[in-house]
From TrEMBL:
Native source organism of the sequence: Planomonospora alba
SUPFAM superfamilies: PFL-like glycyl radical enzymes (SSF51998)
CDD domains listed in its UniProt record: RNR_II_dimer (cd02888)
PANTHER family attached to this UniProt entry: RIBONUCLEOSIDE-DIPHOSPHATE REDUCTASE, VITAMIN B12-DEPENDENT RIBONUCLEOTIDE REDUCTASE
Biased segments, Basic and acidic residues type: 886-904
Positions of the TSCPD domain: 736-839
Keywords of the record: Cobalamin, Cobalt, Disulfide bond, DNA synthesis, Nucleotide-binding, Oxidoreductase
Domain Ribonucleotide reductase class II vitamin B12-dependent N-terminal: 44-134
Cofactor needs: adenosylcob(III)alamin
Family in the record: Belongs to the ribonucleoside diphosphate reductase class-2 family.
Positions of region (Disordered): 1-20, 881-923
Enzyme Commission identifier(s): 1.17.4.1
Protein purpose: Catalyzes the reduction of ribonucleotides to deoxyribonucleotides. May function to provide a pool of deoxyribonucleotide precursors for DNA repair during oxygen limitation and/or for immediate growth after restoration of oxygen.
Protein's name according to its UniProt entry: Vitamin B12-dependent ribonucleotide reductase
């Protein structure tokens, strides 16, 4: 995209100016990029999933015809500015892109980035083309703020600093609040604060950092519930040699014990529940910052010293392995704390003369100086995969140049939440270019995510991206100057550049695809080192891998950041409302790449649509199963598969990686220890783990059992003296946040209704919801109240057969014919509902006593056969269907890659099943994620955070 790095041009006959000489790549001279795209008008109507009420409506919005409904809905609801229903409200993607790109272009001209006005126009057109074609996206704050009357905040990631003074601690509370209010997240290291084992100057004992975490957590929780753009996101880090490290490690695990105990006692501990606010430390991710010294002590089984904050002297020695075990145990129980490898992070630090890197942003991908920020942008990798399976290296280089130029320009006009952050960011100009859709790219090219071939492609792409970014940074330094802190850190910065280039030299390629990418990366790094030696660098940091939550949905990405595919089936929104379940569009492309004929591919896709996995798919060879392995489901990627992918790309990133290593529910504490240890050995900068369902349904702690035993002993000792008779009270057994359910549409005497029946995971009906008539009507209100009453009764242990016996045969209108073949006539709606519940949830013997039979059972009776035999055959069929399928033996660690080609993506759709877990049933195990605070829909993992596919809200950076 850049023909030369500098040029001269006369501007109005005045003195020549220096600047970038731009070159058109994607656009046509004399034609505006908007005019090359077919546009269409749509209506965006968002309804509340609970009651069907409309919570957002904007009609006649304009988007390119190839944008999905989901992407258009998210941009309309999230990024269009102006009050809905007023003339000031944006209604077209053109207006949004013009608003943002206009500021970038004008600022670039004002600060001398372009050689001529024509070059500025080319930059403007190329940027607009890339954005409307979903080739890349800036992070959310850019879309929220740029070109509006609000402060021009462009950064999503912030790192704060806290010193050992009350003034600094109170400033921390305030600064976090300002950042949360703007919809961004921040991280902080509390290790400078004296421990609770040290004395104050007044002679008293210090409170310790964990004590001050309570106040910050409460503040974050309050702002979260105050209507911010998204939930408060924060990271709290503590060094492993801090005397309060054990208390820090166990904070969230202890609180999870509280949550379980309170839930069992009947309190509302669901996310957003009225009682959850009584639990502490829930608004932050926690991470322990470990040193090489500590990790070596763990390996050798040595003791490790905890040091006073002011003097640095060792005040206590602990068993390193025992402390490491505590970290892994807490992570096993509640996914916190994560781990950050301090020496590795600082060994790759470009600015050590300014200060050490002590913390990260909430998702751990941005690691740099205290009181700094980073703005992000992510490239959609699948846009560079051609129909013949080749990766478009040339255009990937050009788009990376364009994005880095735009991101650096943004720092010139950006506003920041605090003066200190503004000063540091302007002086060091940290950028965070990354990518999304890696998992989809690998699948589409026939590569397993956990394979040498897949890792080689990922590493080569990452090396090329960072090499081009720093080469462009050196070019910009020659035009508008290096970052202010460069002179002080020049030798260190150049040393890190050589480390990146050296890692590129040792990269082992396997196929033509990654060889071509690697060859270009080598050229870019050579040019980068040459220009950097001459000009210096414009940016202290260039690249990282963010979770790409909301912007990934905006770009219609199948996978986020560096993540593999979550599952092989997804929900897709439809233009007229509603949604359908589809097989991921990259699967047909992958099958074509692997050599399957169209008829074979269609049969495999149909099987995946029905079963959610590829095991025993007709015609699919077992050696190809691994290509379709996902983060969850029947064939989930092994935990070390995630770690190895992170290790493959980490040497080519300025920052770190937002990614969670998924472990099955059956994983052990030893497994988590192994992941943490291997992450250190493989050179990662940070790592987080998540064991499925670790926050739901955990057993009582040993302490709880001991307390119960002591209580029983006391009662036994008192029994000879006082006879105590206790009358048992029923205990409410709440359903987990995610539960299997069935929705039945019925008609009784012409009246239509819907019934959703939810069960406990270990079977047994626990909840019934009924909907008839319009919301707000008397009948709807009565049905809601009746549903709540029945559901609470079921959860307190009232047997379903009791309700069935009371309500079956109850007579009132509407009554008559139904559309249910098992229940052709009903005396009333209640008669039908409880007959249907009995058929679905009661065993044959209990139903027979009540005179309730299915159509097949009645037919058997008429033939003189035993209806119980039908039931037995059905049970045997279900057992056979659910029997374990023999899995292939574990594949070898290394496997040769495959040739590159692809076919056009296809979509195979099936009718959407009932809400409440059909996708999870395909995945094979629960996707343990929170409900969206905006729309109530189940979120899905995106890096270390979560993203809502319904409205685009995220729990962290995007």
């Amino acid at each position: 995209m850049t023909e030369t790095v500098s040029g001269t041009a006369a501007r109005g006959g005045k003195r020549p100016r220096k600047g970038l000489k731009m070159k058109r790549v994607f656009t046509t001279p004399g034609v505006h990029p908007y005019d090359e795209v077919p546009w269409e008008r749509r209506d965006v109507v968002m309804t509340n999933w609970r009651d069907g009420s409309v919570n957002f409506e904007q009609r006649g919005v304009e988007f390119p015809a190839f944008w999905s409904v989901n992407a258009a809905n998210i941009v309309t609801t999230k990024y269009f500015r102006g009050a809905v229903g007023t003339p000031q409200r944006e209604w077209s993607l053109k207006q949004l892109v013009d608003r943002v790109v206009g500021v970038y272009t004008r600022t670039g001209v004002e600060h001398g980035y372009f050689a001529t006005d024509e070059d500025a126009e080319i930059f403007d057109h190329e940027l607009k083309h890339a954005l409307i074609h979903q080739v890349f996206s800036f992070n959310s704050p850019v879309w929220f703020n740029v070109g509006t009357a609000s402060p021009q905040q462009v950064s999503a990631c912030f790192i704060l600093a806290v010193d050992d003074t009350m003034e600094s601690i109170l400033d921390w509370y305030k600064e976090e609040g300002v950042i949360f209010k703007g919809g961004s997240g921040s991280g902080v290291n509390l290790s400078r604060i004296r421990s609770s084992k040290e004395l104050l100057s007044s002679g008293g004992t210090a409170s310790g950092p964990v004590s001050f975490m309570r106040g910050a957590d409460a503040s974050a929780g309050t702002i979260k519930s105050g209507g911010a753009t998204r939930r408060a996101a924060k990271m709290v880090v503590l060094d492993v040699d801090h005397p309060d490290i054990e208390e820090f490690i166990e904070t969230k695990a202890r609180e999870e014990d509280k949550i379980r105990a309170l839930r069992d006692a009947g309190f509302d501990m669901d996310l957003g529940g009225k009682d959850i606010v009584s639990v502490q430390y829930q608004n932050a991710n926690n991470s322990v910052r470990v040193s090489d010294e500590f990790m070596r002590a763990v390996e050798k089984g040595e003791r490790f010293g905890l040091r006073a904050r002011l003097s640095g002297e060792v005040i206590e020695e602990v068993d390193a392995r025992a402390l490491f075990r505590k970290m892994a145990t807490a992570a096993w129980e509640c996914a916190d704390p994560g781990i950050q490898y301090d020496d590795t992070i600082n060994d790759w630090h470009t600015c050590p003369e300014t200060g050490r890197i002590t913390a990260s942003n909430p998702c751990s991908e941005y690691v740099h100086l205290d009181n700094s920020s980073c703005n992000l942008a992510s490239i959609n990798l699948l846009k560079f995969l051609s129909d013949d399976g080749a990766f478009d290296v040339e255009n990937f280089v050009k788009i990376t140049e364009l994005i880095i130029t735009a991101m650096d320009i943004s720092i010139c006009f950006a506003d920041f939440p605090t003066e200190k952050i503004g000063e540091t960011t302007r002086a060091y100009r940290q950028l965070g270019i990354g990518y999304a859709n890696l998992g989809a790219l690998l699948m589409a090219t026939g590569h397993a995510y956990d394979s040498d071939g897949g890792r080689a492609i990922a590493a080569a792409i990452t090396s090329l991206m960072t090499g081009v970014s720093y080469r462009r940074s050196a070019e910009l330094a020659g035009i508008v100057g290096p970052y202010d802190g460069y002179a002080r850190n020049a030798e260190a910065h150049k040393r890190v550049m050589r480390k990146h280039a050296g890692a590129n030299d040792t990269l082992r390629t396997l196929e033509s695809m990654d060889r071509a990418i690697h060859a270009e990366a080598s050229k870019q790094w050579a040019e980068c080192l040459k220009l950097g030696e001459k000009n210096g660098y414009r940016n202290a940091q260039a690249s990282l891998l963010a979770p790409t939550g909301t912007i990934g949905l905006m770009m219609d990405c199948d996978t986020t950041g560096v993540e593999p595919d979550l599952s092989l089936v997804k929900f897709k929104k439809l233009v007229g409302g509603g949604s359908m379940q589809i097989v991921n569009q990259t699967i047909p492309r992958a099958l074509a790449r692997l050599g399957y004929q169209q008829e074979q591919a269609e049969a495999i896709v149909e099987y995946i649509a029905e079963h959610g996995h590829v095991v025993d798919a007709p015609g699919l060879r077992r050696e190809h199963y691994e290509v379709f392995d996902c983060a969850m489901g029947e064939r989930a990627i092994a935990p070390m598969g995630h770690v190895r992918m992170m290790a493959a790309v980490q040497p080519f990133l300025s920052g770190a990686i937002s990614k969670t290593v998924n472990l099955p529910e059956s994983a052990t504490i030893d497994d988590i220890e192994q992941v943490y240890l291997e992450g250190w050995k493989l050179g990662l900068k940070a790592l987080a783990v998540y064991r499925d369902n670790c926050k739901v349904g955990q057993p009582l702690s040993a302490g709880g059992k001991k307390a119960a035993e002591k209580s029983e002993e006391k009662a036994a000792a008192a029994e000879p003296e006082v006879k105590i008779v206790e009358i048992g009270r029923p205990t409410r057994r709440r359903l987990p946040n995610q539960r299997p359910s069935t929705t039945t549409r019925f008609t009784v005497g012409g009246a239509k209704g819907y019934m959703t029946a939810s069960s406990y995971p270990d079977d047994g009906l626990g909840e019934v919801f009924l909907k008839m008539s319009k919301q707000g009507s008397t009948l709807a209100g009565v049905m809601d109240a009746f549903s709540v009453a029945i559901s609470i009764g079921l959860q307190y242990g009232v047997p379903l057969e009791t309700y069935v016996s009371k309500f079956v045969n109850m007579r009132f209108d509407p009554a008559g014919m139904t559309d249910d073949p098992d229940i052709r006539m009903a005396a009333s709606v209640m008669d039908y509902i409880f007959r249907r519940l009995a058929l679905d949830h009661l065993p044959y013997e209990e139903r027979a006593a009540l005179g309730i039979f299915s159509a097949a059972e009645r037919a058997a009776q008429q033939r003189g056969e035993d209806p119980a035999a039908i039931q037995s055959e059905e049970v045997m069929a279900e057992l056979a269907a659910s029997a374990p399928i023999e899995r292939p033996k574990p594949r070898a660690e290394a496997e040769a890659g495959r040739e590159s080609e692809s076919a056009r993506p296809q979509e195979a759709a099936v009718q959407e099943p009932a809400r409440g877990g059909s996708l999870e049933s395909h995945q094979g195990r629960t996707a343990d994620a929170p409900l969206c605070m905006t729309c109530g829909t189940k979120m899905r993992p995106a890096g270390s955070c979560y993203v809502c596919e319904g409205c685009g809200s995220t729990s962290g950076c995007s």
